[in-house]
């Protein structure tokens, strides 16, 4: 039913096994381990752009948190109206909450597909998803795109004496599938490889979560839902790796470790670029502000226009202007001597004489 997942996963794993097989040999445990690691890297490289959008979406959600709280408070009794207003807010800001979940959701089917493909190299068990084959039948039956020779190569591969498809709680009867291909491994040899990988995977999960939480805004961290998710990411998920590790194949633990290492490096790269973008925007604003500011020592220019003089004021100025006489003394104009002004008021004819006498 899930062959559309199993076949692509097995094709990618087959490709990297062929690549590293040329360097280290097809039956080498390092070849199969690197094939699993580069399967992770291939997936994460494909999901790089969605991851960047996820980071931007998460940051944008933190910035919109105050507005979201206001809408929740305003429409707490009308869920339909609140949903409509939330959609409107998301549309105005180009915010898509699904982009924050896409990279995580895309990794789930790959994880399940890899788990199934790795388990299918040993189908001697009788549990869920097992076929109850004999060791001979299992070694001579193809596994998706892997032929019988690839299955035998996988059974022969060891990492420090442990098959990468084995796990600490592997039943003894299933370990018999490795008898003709390097001998039956002991539980101790499997545990010596699996337990350090479990610890590394748990620590890597914790530090990745810590790096994400440290970049949250105080408003977002104060949100009860965000606070609960932070606790789950910081403590519950890493503990889940330690608790579930004994039931996971060594190859899945390798997948988990390499996935967390990639995530840690990718987060620093993406957040570093975003910090540079924000710094560049701030510098551009400061430069724009500096260009608009007046130069040192320059007089500020008054951009406000002075009001134009009215017609009445122009007429009054012309009337009040004295006319020079032939003997050099200034004579007032006819209108200023006694005629009425345009506004209907009569100016006094002796205006200015008292001042002239005082000056003499």
The amount of helix comes to: 55-70%
Spans where pLDDT lies below 50 across 5 or more residues: 334-339
Structural class by secondary-structure content: mainly alpha
Mean pLDDT: 79
What is the oligomer described by this structure? single chain
**What is the helix tally?**
16
Structure, described:
The chain has 16 helices and two strands. With about 350 residues, it is mainly alpha-helical. It has a two-stranded antiparallel sheet with strand order 1-2. α1 crosses α6, α2 packs parallel to α13 and α10 packs antiparallel against α12. About 0% of the residues have low confidence. Keywords: Cell membrane, Chaperone, Coiled coil, Membrane, Protein transport, Transmembrane, Transmembrane helix, Transport. Interacts with the Sec translocase complex via SecD. Specifically interacts with transmembrane segments of nascent integral membrane proteins during membrane integration. It comes from Nocardia sputorum.
Key terms:
single chain, 360 residues, mainly alpha, two-stranded antiparallel sheet, 16 helices, 2 strands, transmembrane helix, YidC/ALB3/OXA1/COX18
Secondary structure layout:
Blueprint: H1 3-24, H2 29-46, H3 48-63, H4 65-74, H5 79-92, H6 102-119, H7 135-139, H8 148-156, H9 172-175, H10 187-214, H11 218-222, H12 224-244, H13 250-292, H14 311-320, E1 323-324, E2 330-331, H15 334-337, H16 353-359
Antiparallel strand pairs: 1-2
Main location: membrane
Biased composition (Polar residues): 325-338
Family: Belongs to the OXA1/ALB3/YidC family. Type 1 subfamily.
